[in-house]
Hints:
Blueprint: E1 5-11, H1 19-32, E2 37-41, H2 49-52, E3 57-59, H3 65-75, E4 82-86, H4 92-101, H5 104-110, E5 113-121, H6 125-137, E6 142-148, H7 149-152, E7 171-173, H8 178-184, H9 191-195, H10 204-243
Parallel strand pairs: 1-4, 1-5, 2-3, 2-4, 5-6, 6-7
Amino acid sequence: MMRRTPLYIVCSPRPRVGKTLVARLLVDFFLLEGRSVAAFDFAAEEPSLIDYLPNHTSRADIADITGQMALFDRLIAGDKTAKIVDLAPASFEPFFSVLRQIEFVDGARRRGIEPVTLFMADPGRASIQAYAGLQSRVPDMVLVPVYNEAVAGGRRSRAEFPLARAVSVPIYIPALIPLLHRHIEKPPFSFADFRSTPPGDIPLDTYMELHRWMRRAFVEFRELELRLLLHDVQDSLLRDDTSS
């Protein structure tokens, strides 16, 4: 069985819920794992993903057919490169409308790619409705709620963000203490570079605290990767049983 290459779509219909932070962490997670990764930034506000990680990020725009074709052709390329989409709130509906119209999920899976939507869950009604809409409109896509503790305040209501399948276990991003924000919010900043370099002018206790926070976030991603791998195995076994 060949393991599928992940395509993570980090999204929310609402701004300022930690979406770009999650996208940044994902890019650096793959870099630290020594894996090829490419990111796509809709750049709704500055600083955006491309400002933090310019060497690994391209701008994306689906305002016209040319932009749509350019983006989705790259997302479906079978190049064994993990891909991260930082989807702006204004592009939320157009993106998933195109994705559904072109039957992107089925096409991606045939090429060994697993599209996974990481949905930033927050208490707002717009988020709850958008999440339910994705479940009904694109039921074959893996949809994972992401709880940013700094935004959701620990809110983990499974009633409002129900899981459609076992692989969709929520991801929890721990809250970062305010003291550490100034170290990560000034672009360019790479978590991968920070982790592999000595603290420099950062106090040692601050340096270690940020390391602990990063490690907790990366453990969440590793566990998701394991669930996706198990999902691949189960799908493969099911196909074998059906064909025999």
